[in-house]
Amino acid sequence: MEQPAGDPIPFDKFRSDLSRKFQYYLDRATPHTAGRWGGTCGVALLYAVRVYFLQGFYIVTYGLGIYLLNLLIGFLSPMVDPEQETSDGPALPMKGSDEFKPFIRRLPEFKFWYAITKALCIAFMMTFFSVFDVPVFWPILLCYWVVLFVLTMKRQILHMVKYKYVPFNLGKQKYGGKKSSASSSMSKD
C-alpha cells in the first residue's frame, strides 16, 4: 500500500521530531555555561580513562588533540583578522584614539563547547571499534603535539599582543570612585 503524497514518511517524521527535541535541550542548556563545561569535562575524563585502560587508540587521541587545538585557535581569534582583510563591520582598535569595538570571536563560546563535546563523543565511540586502534609509538605523537601546541599558541599570543586584544571577558569593570557621603558619615560614629 502506497503512502499518500501529503503524509510524511515515518522515518523522516521520527528524525524531525528527534532533531526538534535535541534542539530544544540545546537551547535550554545555552545559559548554563558552568554546567555545560562540567559535563564536557566529565566526558573528557571518561574518554581519558577509557583510553588509559585500553592502552590504545592513540592515533584517535592525537587526531582529537589536533582538532581541539584548531577549535581553540578559532575561539581565541577575532572574527575579522586585521592582518588579512579589512571590513566595514567591527574591527579591533589599533590606536588609543580609535573607537572601542568589542571583541567578537571567530568561533563563539557555545559553538566552541558544542564542537568539543561532539568531538569527544565521536572519539569515545571510535574506541569501541578495533579498526581505529592503529599501533603507533605514542610518545612521539605526544611530543609532536606539544611542539605544535607551543608554536601555535606562541603565534596566537604574539598576534594578540600586536593588535592589543584580549579574547576573554573579565566581567564588568569596577571603578574605585568616591565613597558616598552616607557611608562615610556612618563610619565616623
UniProtKB/TrEMBL annotation:
Key word Nucleus present: no
Location in the cell: Membrane
Membrane topology, as annotated: Multi-pass membrane protein
Organism: Carex littledalei
Function statement: Involved in the retrieval of endoplasmic reticulum membrane proteins from the early Golgi compartment.
Record has Transmembrane helix as a keyword: yes
Listed transmembrane segments: 52-76, 112-130, 136-153
Name of the protein described by the UniProt record: Protein RER1
The organism's taxonomic lineage, starting at the top: Eukaryota, Viridiplantae, Streptophyta, Embryophyta, Tracheophyta
